Structure formats: C-alpha cells, structure tokens
User: Which sequence fits this backbone?
C-alpha cells in the first residue's frame, strides 16, 4: 500500500450552535489532538450568540482548521449539509459539537475503511456519557467483533430506528465523500432533525457498512434540564418520520433495499407508529409540548395512522354494484317485514 | 467568513436596500450562452447586487473568461467536488448573503431592467415569499422567439392557498420554468430548506416552489423580464436526457408534498388535492412513454424508469398490475407490433 492510499485527506466537520464553552473546547481540542497526517477540520458556526463564535475563532491559528459561517441561521440538518458541502476530503466525518474523540480515533479507523473498498462508511463503537449522574457505558456490546455488515443486514437493523448497532452511528463515522454526495447527503428528504436515518439508508444503497469494535468516540447524553438548546424534539421527530416514510416509498433504490431487508412499507409504518407511541408525551409539564406543538404531534400521528384505502378503479364498480343491490334488497326487506309484522 | 467582512463595510445599508444575490450555477455550458447570461447579470443597474458564479468543475473551460472581468460584484466559487445538479444549486444557494436571492441557469439571461422591476413587485407585495415573471422563450432549433406565458396571465398576487393550486399542478404553463428570473426572499428560502431534494435529481424547482409557499404568497409579473432558452442534446445541451428523470422526480415531489404537514394544511384550506395532479401526471407520463417507445429508444433505463415512475404515481388510484403489465411478454410483443405498423403514423398525427 503506498502512502497516497494509506493517508487520504479526511475532513472532520464540526457544526456549532450555541454550545456550552467547555463542551465545545473539549470537542475541538480532541480533534486537533489527532495525529493523523492528512486532516482538514471545518468548524461551522450557525450564528451563535452565546460566545461560541469567539471560542471558535481562537482556533483559527491552526493550519488544519477552516472556520465558516452560513449566510443566515439555518435549520439544523441544513446547517450540517452546508458545512459538509465545504469539505475537500476524500473521507468525511461529522462530529456533534458536544461529542469528542479519543486520541487514536482517525489513526485506527482510517486504515480499516481503506482496507474495505466495498464499505461506503465505517463507524466505531462509542462510549456514552450520561451527563445526569456521570455514568459511562459502551453503546454497543463489546463482544460484537469488527466486521463488514452487508447492506441488506445493515438495512434490517437501521430500519428498526432504535437499533443496537446503528443508533448514534453517525458519531465518529467515516463516510466516503463520493458516496455521500452521490446520494445528496444529510439534507436528503427534507428532514429537519433526523438526517442520519435517511443518510444511512442512502449510503447502504451504495455499499456495505463497516463496524469497528473499539470505543473511539464519546457521546454525551443530556437533556433540556442540563441546558441543551434543542431538547424539545418530539414534534420534529414525528414530522420527520412522516417525511422519511413518504420518501422511502418513492425512492426506488432505497425502496428496493428495504424490500430486500424484509421491511415492507407497511411494516416500517407500523414500527414508526409503535415508536411514536413510546416517545410522545402530550402532558403539558415543564418540558412537555406547548399547545401548538401538541397540535403538530397529533397531526403527524394522524398521517402515520392513516392507511390509504385504495378503492382502485376496478374494484369501485363492484362496490357500487353491491350498493345498488343492497338498496334493492332493502326495499324487499321492508316488504317482507311488513308481511311479518302487520301494523 | 463573508459575513464578517460585510459587517465592517459601512457602505452596505441593510435596512434601506435589500442586497440581492444572483446565483449562476454553471457546468460545461456553451461559452456563448454563459457569457450572455453573465453580461446580462452585470448589466443590472442596482448597486446592491452580488453575483455568485458557482462552477461545478467544468471541463470545457467555459468559465475562463471570468478572470478577465474585474467587477467587484462578481464572486466565483467552486464546490469541493463535482456535485449532482440539485446539490450544486443548494451549495451555491448557501453562499448567498443577500436578503433576496435569485437563481439564473447559465443558458438563460435577464433583461436589463429585471432587478428594478422585480424589486418593485416584491415591495408592492410584502407578504410574497417570492415573485416570478413572464419569460421570453427562445427555441434554438427553429430560432423562434415568443412569450412564455402570454397576456392571458395578468400580473397578480397569489395567496398561498391560490398558489398551491398552480404550483401543485406541476408541468403546465402557469408555473413551468418559474425559477428563471424569480426573486426569492432568503428568509423563506432557508426556512423551507431551499433547494433541498425530496430524493429528487433534476426537478428541484418544483420542490422549492412548494416549499416557499409555506412562508408566504407568490407575486407574478406579466412583463417578460427574463429569457429562456429551449434546446436539446441535438444542439449540444449537456444533460438533455431528462424526461424519464423528471418523471420520477415529480412523482417524488408529489409524495413529499402530500406528507408535509404545513403543505397539507395549506392544501386543505385551498381544497386542493394532490391526487388530481397525480392522475394528471400519470396520464402525461404515459403519453411521454408512448412517445419514447414510438421513437424507438432501445434504452432499457428509460423503460425501467418510466415504469417505476408510473408505479409510484399510480399509487392510490390505479391497481399495481396496470403498471407492470408493460413488462408482460404478450403486451411487449403486441406493442412492438403496433409500433412497427402504426408508430410513425400516430406520431406524425398526434404527438
């Protein structure tokens, strides 16, 4: 293996919006500490107003860092898409500004994906850090070995939505840029929040998934109580589910992937309904939905539930014939009834 | 860090005048056409204009002449690698700093008074998310020039309930090619996700139009302020193999729009149903398919794409076997028989 294929340019994208200063520093410094030789770091600030912009500019001195800003404040997935579109690397990675990498992250995972040309992305095991209580825990069972997961099998797991393997897959994942751009990236399907779900499905239509069984990144789990700026997500997630379902239905490559993986549209929808029933909480507490949000939640639930009854044009005549028949019989019944019960 | 440089520039007064970003994405365009569209953009008299040319890694050197133009309004950008059409438009859109933006395909061009007129239109209709204008259509093959939407379409303002009726129809004269010369409020553009694609490869403007009307109405100006070039692969257009792709795209856009919460609410107010456009599009594409078959395109991909599309479009009103029937051997032999016997006759008569 020559040095060119061994060290392709890697772009790590860090989209930032009103992040806590210590989390942000931890994230950026963990990436700067990577000893991988051919690295580009793009930090994109979505017009933060809590001083994140100043913190980011403190890192401008490093030649690997490029700092950008969208023209105006963008919705979250749009902002991620914007930032990734600036990447020059052959391989991409997106890092949430509250997550951070272990020192050997890139050195370990890059050779893996380079040695499996059939994989469109590689993702490592990760450590979950619960901000409430400070517990740490591996996200995936450490007994699962490093392996190439065939696209069908991976599709099966992704479609569960809350799969053991593919939850948080995007944290620390390395994606081939050509596959990313070929399936038009994270803003695919006009999702607002859950860009990683359609992204993984799209990537699986282009190749397999490579799992690397080493805890190389850390993922912080925290909620609105700890001061996260977008803790209230129920309505948005549900709306995204509706959109994703509609788009899987109409995207031939993704649709055929789902069919091969044994997930018909009906089954996916039932799964989504089940999940949404688990997740949603209509109670109006401190963090519960406002009346306007509640309306949106109910509306998307209604769409999820509404099975399209298709009185296809060829069965419609049968129905109308039945109707006409019923009408005739109805009159007949009346006559029969009159005879039976003479009033 | 463009935003930073602007804040320090005292000449730019955001409150008084909108800064307009005109975005020209280009890929392997004929230099003659591209030069024409750049010159028409530079001829706009408005001082607060920025012209963003995004070069999608052209290989025919059509952007070389730009280095000879020393105009501070012109900015050349380049995506990191060659992107798909829609993605490239989205990429270029992200660089717009203006409060208003407009996309100009690189083979079309603007009239000199386009910007002033369109600004006046948007000023008159503060609720409009965007304004579009009539076009002058130039057919390259025949050299014919005509108005695109003629006097039958007067200048008017559509509330979004009215707009969904015309933008939900898709391929029709009311809204086709509306994007050329349309002036869009960037707030609405970015809120709606802009040139996001609902899995679309080509017809991103259909998505964008529907997305924009979530955030306001639409103003239409009946003067022809932009010019639209109609040409095909025969004259050397680089991506003319579109019909099958556009078919699939519209099918996807309809499904996306039917499942978008806000659009559903607007459609409900307007008593508009996408089912009608679904049926309309199915018929339209069936005709286009027949035309393709008669033209004897032995291109497997086109056949597959059409059938796939019809399947998607017909969901909900036509049984599935109706669309897969085209694959059955007896039907295939029957159609090829008819094609050989009557194809040319039918084509010259009807299509």
Assistant:
């Amino acid at each position: 293996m020559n040095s060119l294929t061994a060290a392709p340019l890697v772009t790590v994208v860090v989209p930032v919006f009103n992040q806590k200063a210590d989390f942000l520093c931890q994230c950026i410094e963990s990436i700067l500490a990577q000893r991988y030789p051919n690295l580009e770091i793009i930090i994109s600030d979505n017009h933060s107003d809590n001083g994140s912009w100043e913190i980011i500019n403190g890192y401008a001195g490093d030649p690997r860092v490029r700092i950008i800003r969208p023209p105006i404040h963008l919705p979250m997935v749009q902002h991620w898409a914007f930032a990734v579109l600036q990447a020059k690397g052959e391989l991409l990675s997106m890092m949430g500004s509250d997550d951070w990498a272990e020192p050997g992250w890139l050195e370990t995972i890059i050779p893996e994906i380079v040695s499996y040309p059939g994989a469109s992305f590689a993702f490592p095991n990760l450590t979950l850090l619960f901000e409430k209580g400070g517990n740490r825990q591996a996200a995936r069972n450490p007994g699962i070995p490093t392996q190439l997961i065939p696209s069908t099998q991976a599709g099966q797991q992704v479609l569960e939505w809350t799969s053991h393997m593919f939850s948080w897959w995007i944290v620390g994942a390395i994606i081939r840029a050509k596959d990313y751009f070929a399936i038009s990236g994270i803003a695919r399907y006009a999702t607002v929040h859950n860009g990683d779900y359609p992204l993984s499905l799209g990537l699986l239509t282009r190749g397999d998934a490579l799992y690397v069984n080493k805890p190389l990144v850390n993922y912080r789990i925290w909620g609105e109580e700890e001061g996260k700026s977008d803790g209230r997500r129920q309505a948005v997630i549900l709306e995204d589910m509706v959109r994703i379902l509609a788009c899987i239905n109409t995207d031939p490559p993704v649709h055929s992937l789902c069919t091969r993986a044994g997930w018909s549209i009906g089954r996916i929808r039932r799964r989504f309904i089940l999940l949404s029933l688990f997740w949603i909480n209509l109670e109006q507490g401190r963090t519960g939905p406002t009346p306007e949000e509640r309306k949106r939640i109910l509306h998307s639930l209604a769409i999820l539930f509404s099975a399209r009854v298709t009185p296809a044009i060829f069965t419609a005549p049968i129905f109308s014939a039945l109707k006409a028949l019923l009408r005739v019989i109805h009159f007949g019944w009346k006559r029969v009834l009159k005879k039976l019960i003479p009033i | 860090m463009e935003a930073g440089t602007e804040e320090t520039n005292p000449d730019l007064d955001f409150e008084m005048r909108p800064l307009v970003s005109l975005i020209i994405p280009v890929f392997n365009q004929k230099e003659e056409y591209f030069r024409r569209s750049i010159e028409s953009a530079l001829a706009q008299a408005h001082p607060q204009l920025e012209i963003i040319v995004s070069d999608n890694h052209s290989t025919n050197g059509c952007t070389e002449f730009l280095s000879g133009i020393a105009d501070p309004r012109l900015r050349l950008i380049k995506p990191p690698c060659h992107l798909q059409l829609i993605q490239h438009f989205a990429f270029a859109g992200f660089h717009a700093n203006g409060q208003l933006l407009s996309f100009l395909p690189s083979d079309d061009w603007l009239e000199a008074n386009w910007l002033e007129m369109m600004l006046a239109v948007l000023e008159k209709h503060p609720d409009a998310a965007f304004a579009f204008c009539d076009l002058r259509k130039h057919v390259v093959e025949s050299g014919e020039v005509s108005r695109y939407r003629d006097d039958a379409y007067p200048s008017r303002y559509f509330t979004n309930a009215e707009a969904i009726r015309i933008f939900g129809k898709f391929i029709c004269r009311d809204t086709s090619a509306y994007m050329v010369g349309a002036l869009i409020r960037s707030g609405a553009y970015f809120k709606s996700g802009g040139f996001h694609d609902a899995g679309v490869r080509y017809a991103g403007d259909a998505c964008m139009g529907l997305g924009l009307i979530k955030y306001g109405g639409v103003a239409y100006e009946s003067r022809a302020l932009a010019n639209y070039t109609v040409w095909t692969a025969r004259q050397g257009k680089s991506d003319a193999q579109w019909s099958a792709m556009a078919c699939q795209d519209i099918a996807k856009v309809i499904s996306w729009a039917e499942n978008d919460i806000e659009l559903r609410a607007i459609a409900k107010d307007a008593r508009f149903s996408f089912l009608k456009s679904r049926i309309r599009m199915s018929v339209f594409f069936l005709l286009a398919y027949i035309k393709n078959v008669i033209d004897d395109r032995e291109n497997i991909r086109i056949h597959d794409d059409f059938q796939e599309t019809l399947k998607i479009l017909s969901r909900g009103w036509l049984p599935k076997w109706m669309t897969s029937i085209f694959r059955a051997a007896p039907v295939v032999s029957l159609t090829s028989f008819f094609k050989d016997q009557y194809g040319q006759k039918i084509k010259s008569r009807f299509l």
Observations:
- The mean pLDDT of chain A is 83.
